[in-house]
Specification:
The protein is α+β, with helices and mostly antiparallel strands. The protein has 2 domains: 163 residues, Spore Coat Polysaccharide Biosynthesis Protein SpsA, Chain A, CATH 3.90.550.10; 76 residues, no CATH class. The protein has 9 helices and 8 strands. Strands 1, 2, 3, 6, 7 and 8 form a 6-stranded mixed beta sheet that branches. A hairpin with a 5-residue loop joins strand 4 and strand 5. Helix 5 runs parallel beside helix 6, helix 6 crosses helix 9 and helix 8 packs antiparallel against helix 9.
Length: 262
């Protein structure tokens, strides 16, 4: 397949010997020779004007990264203006697949539809501390927040489109179901990203919010109680995974085990 495509496009095949998405991203990043590094997923198809729209924003030299909307197969949720932001208490709002309106600055881009100036992304690399089997969730969040913390500007433009057909991930991360391993790894990765990004005075607030409230997928104590009657054991498993992941994330953040693999 690569050989056939290479007849029309300058494609370089990169062999990855280590497991996991982070290793693959870093291997690809080392092979990049252009000023802009664009990233999408193996279950996504960029629109024909994808790069054209992105490059329009990169004409501004202060812009470090650009992303857009992924049109998810079978999803018909209400469009949202609030996309890719970190709230005061540290809660991260995604909604990249539901974004509407004009281009604006954001804190987080989504891995299925994002591009960075190569110098910026190479400055940090993708972090080998991130947990996960195959897909290491929130690698996009961590690289985005590191760039933001260093002063880089990220732009989200709903006109930058890819068609996204979410595929089944590796064992242990079924995307939609509440499974201990997947929730633990997701919570761990988010905790590292947010703790690195927030100023010291807000880190305690984030951890308190995460443990007491959290989200439906990563519930804290209050949501555990609220969701328990309807979801029973699934809620308990999600809560246990979330708490375990937060604890592991704090440990990884404090000890800085396994430094970024750039």
């Amino acid at each position: 397949m690569i050989a056939a495509a290479s007849q029309n496009l300058p494609i370089t095949e990169v062999i990855v010997t280590a497991p996991g998405q982070v290793a693959a991203l870093n291997s690809g990043l080392r092979a990049v020779v252009s000023d802009i590094t664009a990233i999408t997923d193996d279950d996504a198809a960029p629109r024909t004007d994808w790069l054209q729209h992105m490059l329009t924003h990169f004409a501004d030299p202060t812009v470090a990264g650009v992303g857009g909307r992924d049109v998810v197969t079978g999803s018909f949720r209400t469009p949202q203006e609030t996309v890719g932001l970190v709230r005061f208490q540290g809660r991260v709002v995604g909604n990249h697949h539901r974004g509407t309106g004009t281009a604006r600055h954001v804190d987080v881009l989504k891995g299925t539809n994002m591009a960075f100036r190569t110098a910026w992304v190479r400055r940090f690399g993708f972090d080998a501390r991130l947990r996960g089997t195959g897909a290491q969730v929130h690698n996009d969040m961590l690289i985005s927040l590191r760039i933001r913390a260093a002063g880089g500007i990220l732009v989200y433009d709903p006109a930058v489109l890819v068609d996204h057909h979410p595929a089944i991930r590796a064992a242990g991360d079924p995307r939609t179901t509440w499974q201990f391993d997947a929730i633990r790894d997701e919570s761990h990765n988010e905790t590292i990203a947010v703790l690195e990004y927030l100023p010291a005075i807000r880190r305690g607030l984030y951890l308190a919010w995460a443990v007491l409230c959290g989200t439906k997928r990563n519930p804290g104590l209050l949501l555990l109680v609220a969701l328990l009657p309807a979801r029973r054991w699934r809620t308990v498993e999600a809560f246990a995974g979330s708490v375990a992941g937060r604890a592991l994330g704090v440990h990884s953040w404090i000890t800085k085990d396994s430094q970024p693999a750039g």
